[in-house]
Amino acid sequence: MKITILLFCFILPLALADFKVGFYDSSCPKAESIVKQVVQNRFKRDKSITAALLRMHFHDCAIRGCDASILINSTSTNTAEKDSGTNVDVRGYDLIDEAKQTLESACPSTVSCADIITLATRDAVGLSGGPKYGVPTGRRDGLVSKMEEVNIPGPNSPVSVTSAFFASKGITAQEMVTLLGAHTVGVAHCGFFANRLSSSQGKPDPTMDPKLDAKLVKVCEARGDPSAPLDQKTSFVLDNEFYRQILANKGVLLIDQELALDTRTKGFVTDFATDGDKFHRSFADAMVKMGKVDVLVGNQGEIRKKCSAFNKARN
């Protein structure tokens, strides 16, 4: 089951020499262009890759910071983050591997997998009509990835619980609302919202538009676990339409709808719904901030040769 959820960790002081925009200008001048080309090629045939990369990036930063720990494969002695229930449907690993392989040919043991995730996500956001922005690089790859450390609030968590989680990571309520705007290109499987539908409750959810309820009931009647876009109008465009829809009670997920109903967050939702440019500026700022959380720099961690495995076997 898939869903784009945004999460983060604490921010630590960073040495500017080890973490800055253009970090690879001398050591690997084509690093960013190589990643961008890989993302462009994928986006041409799969516009949903933006949501996939956003989810990967956020879920990586949620646990140990932006250190590519989500990319590690499990071994016989360790079950990694990738195999937690929360991350089981994260995708886009092959894109990261493709970029890494090309970068290793051009600049061996130079560009971290953590930076590749951040750069690829930034490029996908721009291709989807979102803001274009520079991101600091110089991250190092982490040395730990454990499934038991994955603890992410679910889509049915109320605003109070979700905002408390974000606040504990140094993320403000406004930044939380901004980053959850990434749901404008996200999808969710019926298992995440079926409990809100009239087919489950026996009556319409008063916080959901009846026409949307009827539409989603039909979607979820299909076999398996079908999905629905979280933005019913511009599902592949990173714009402010998501906020307009949740103000009209057209939020698919409980957490999305509650953003427009809770007095602590409704003002931010209204602001973004009426000003798309402000949303884009705020989203770029929040993404840069998210990309800085708990990163490893300097001599910390390592530069993996292969993104799915540590350079040396670890328990």
From TrEMBL:
Question: Where's the active site on this chain?
Answer: H59
Q: Which cofactor does it need?
A: heme b; Ca(2+)
Record-annotated disulphide pairs: C28-C107, C61-C66, C113-C307, C190-C220
| Protein's GO biological process | hydrogen peroxide catabolic process; response to oxidative stress
Main subcellular location: secreted
Give the binding site residues for heme b. H183
**Any single Gene Ontology cellular-component annotation:** extracellular region
The protein's UniProt keywords, in alphabetical order, are: Calcium, Disulfide bond, Heme, Hydrogen peroxide, Iron, Metal-binding, Oxidoreductase, Peroxidase, Secreted, Signal
Q: Where in the cell is it found?
A: Secreted
- Give its E.C. classification number: 1.11.1.7
Record-stated family: Belongs to the peroxidase family. Classical plant (class III) peroxidase subfamily.
Designated name of the protein: Peroxidase
What is the organism of origin for this protein?
Cajanus cajan
